[in-house]
Amino acid sequence: MATIGIDFGTTYSSLACFRQNRTHVIPDNNGYSATPSVVSFTEDEYLIGYPAVEQMNFDMENTVYDIKRIIGRSSNDRSTREMCEQFSFDVTLSEQTPKVVVQYQGTEHQFDPEQIVALFLGDFKTNASTYLQEDITGTIVTVPASFNYRQREAIKKACELADLGPVQLLNEPTAAAVAFRLDSQLRNNSTVLVYDLGGGTFDLSIMKYHDSIFEVIMTRGDDKLGGRDFDTRLMNHVKENFERLHHCDLSENKVALQRLRQACEKAKFRLSTAPSAPVKLPHFFGNISLSDTIQRATFERLNQDLFDRTKTLMTDAITECGISLDSIDEVILVGGSTRIPRIRQMMRETFPTLKLNCTINPNHVVAEGAAVYAAKVFASCNTNEQLSDWIVQDVNQWALGLEDSRGNMVTLIKPNSPLPVKSTHYATTDTDHQTTMYIGIYEGDHSWATRNELLDYYILEGIQPQPAGKVLVQIDFELNREGMLTVTSSNLQTGLKVHHDTQTSRYEQYQKEIRQQQRQPQDSESQVAATTGESRRKQKEAYIRLKNLLNLVKLNQGFPSVEKTYLEIKDWLQKNPSASVREIEFRIEKLSKLSK
């Protein structure tokens, strides 16, 4: 019986286990402790890790990387579109979520980001089982603390598709702190700050460690800030120099830009130990070669505002906790980007009396902590005295709530609530003889519900007709230790209870469709076109119905609540011309109430 911890990173991933009272990093099939988060599709197979990186040099369009940056994201999100434009592989944004388009086994395939991640996770499980010569009975997969509900849900789906078995999610900074505690580097009754700057995300957690309890009290982060963004700044700088010198435009040359990105990433690595680094690419643009030299000072100048943003998030979090910088007893640096000299200088200047704790390799400290936690949760808590008393008390980053009849956000679970947590809200009918109640579930901090992220919605039926306000419905939100949400609605008039598990709703059908796609050959072009055409027809019909309803509701704008909802949806409609049928139907349901 073996348990493992997986740190699936934007650029590199790692795998570890806990045995004989210590952690062991499990190397990949090529002997490396960190595996590039890259998969390449060929005529015969798919490659993962360093073989995929090698294949990228010959086939960039069918090599997928940085998939963590778009998993769980909406196609309508501007930052998603901007990231997809930088990829050398194709991504279609015609549906609600992005889909990766590659040629695989002679035909075109479209994969959800969850499917791509599942390939990595499944490979890690197989590798671990082979290495340990045991079946894997439990896995901890880490996620950025800044990941929202949709992103966490997508990672869980990827774990299901990879057939990992029992799985729990753990925030990356928390996992790092667990690893340092195992290494006896955390003092009792200490306040710990974890600064986690990786390839694609930045996380910051402040926690108290006392009597074997890890109590997270604050988390902050940015899931669009990391080493990849530093690479992009450097790449654009070198690109502009080359274009200016040779009077050319590289904007549409994806192959050249990907080669340049790889070269700039290598230069960034070198600048962590050297004052300058060369960027050289033979035959970069036709017969013209690229040759440039980057000074460390130039790299720092290009990215100083991004470095400063991490500091601002950090100091704001400390202030919000009601503590001072002097109250921090330990500072742990996690993530490959913390090797950047300017980052370490900034942290030393912020905490001049503390020694920065970076003694465990930042590339796999998160995986090691996850492995320790896996042993605690799944296997060794009854047999390993070293772990038996450990308790991890994490928090959520984002507010969760409902939309009331006036369109306001009713927060049930506040940010930084200790997990698990449960909260209850009582709602009443707002119109006479109402027989159904719309319940929309949102995540975010805006006072208007529709300005936040819509996680899911459902209709509570079976309400007996009564005057407005006479029917009382109890709505319970329950967030587990992984940050996964379950919503329960109870009609207190009839006793009818609806258990709505947002993490599994409509997922059985989703999983069936994904696995069917993996087993079956790709549909013919005519079938794909027909399916796409049908989806667009339904979207167009729903869009027209919503616009017609808007015109009808416009006549009732004299009422403040009606006017506010009308303006919200009108604004949303203008900004989301490619919205999914589900999102449009959701707003049709709201407007239908107002038009009666």
TrEMBL record:
<feature type="compositionally biased region" description="Low complexity">
    <location>
        <begin position="517"/>
        <end position="527"/>
    </location>
</feature>
<dbReference type="GO" id="GO:0140662">
    <property type="term" value="F:ATP-dependent protein folding chaperone"/>
</dbReference>
<feature type="region of interest" description="Disordered">
    <location>
        <begin position="515"/>
        <end position="536"/>
    </location>
</feature>
<dbReference type="InterPro" id="IPR043129">
    <property type="entry name" value="ATPase_NBD"/>
</dbReference>
<dbReference type="GO" id="GO:0005524">
    <property type="term" value="F:ATP binding"/>
</dbReference>
<keyword id="KW-0547">Nucleotide-binding</keyword>
<keyword id="KW-0346">Stress response</keyword>
<dbReference type="InterPro" id="IPR018181">
    <property type="entry name" value="Heat_shock_70_CS"/>
</dbReference>
<protein>
    <submittedName>
        <fullName>Heat shock 70 kDa protein cognate</fullName>
    </submittedName>
</protein>
<comment type="similarity">
    <text>Belongs to the heat shock protein 70 family.</text>
</comment>
<dbReference type="InterPro" id="IPR029047">
    <property type="entry name" value="HSP70_peptide-bd_sf"/>
</dbReference>
<keyword id="KW-0067">ATP-binding</keyword>
<dbReference type="InterPro" id="IPR013126">
    <property type="entry name" value="Hsp_70_fam"/>
</dbReference>
<dbReference type="Pfam" id="PF00012">
    <property type="entry name" value="HSP70"/>
</dbReference>
